[in-house]
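Quick start: read one record
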Amino acid sequence: MAIEIAPINGFIGAELHGVDLSRLDDAGFAVIHDALVKYEVLVIRDQARMSLEDQMAFGARFGPLSVHPFSPNMADKPEVIVLDYSADHPAARTDIWHADETFRPNPPIVTMLRARVLPPAGGDTCFSSMSAAYRGLSERMQRYIHGLEARHDFRPFRSLFGDSAEAKAKLRKLEDEFPNPWHPVVAVHPVSGRRVLYVNPQFTVAVRGMKSDESDALLGYLYGRASVPEYQLRVKWQVDTVVLWDNRSVQHYAPHDYYPARRSMERVTIAGSVPIGVTGEYTPETVAGLGQVNPGGPPKKAPVRQFERAA
């Protein structure tokens, strides 16, 4: 099949045409794999022919599927997460910028989401390129955060477990299984070699070696880089739309703007490896990324006030 790649925004995202994920050959998968690394988010429409088994098989071509330790997995297919929200089950904990499961020592490399039931309005998903966010920092800030590490934790999900003795025991077990990994603040994408701003407000809790107020101030600034419109993509879903995103270089945010309507999605994630940071002394990044940060022109000279004019 001939796959057409249509970029969506300058820094992030492409829509693919001429794709049937239920019968994709090796050459087609190679095109999709390379496009995902380049564009970071891929939107693929009209995948009604793709069964859930096809979705899992396609995801497995990137690597082994992971099982989330406490999300609503399907009983007979634990690799599949069903995100089904409505008036009876309101959405929670997705309306914050985050990369998936960075509380793991080896967070997922790719997430794949398929729309099944959509509200009449709302329910979009927003994405932000963290490789573009890094390039948008001043060189002084890039030097400052070079080599730093930050601790990650699944703190927003602790309330899911309740107060029973059984729930508390399960929580303690998960805390032992995921003991707050330290990830680089600036990670290096293992395929593209691009540098990525690798902190997010859902899971990152502290920068190593800093006082809490120093850490909070730095993280607060870095979190805000995901909100820069130039680095963003907003996907408007249609039933049987599939979206893939590179979890190594992208954060996402799912607004809760459709209550009390129903929105149901099926998700698979691909297991990853330990994020690797920049090493050695700071040097400017040499790997080109998608888009170019506009440096702006020289400041315009303001009109001189009368009292500032030479006599």
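The chain is about 20% helix and 20% strand.
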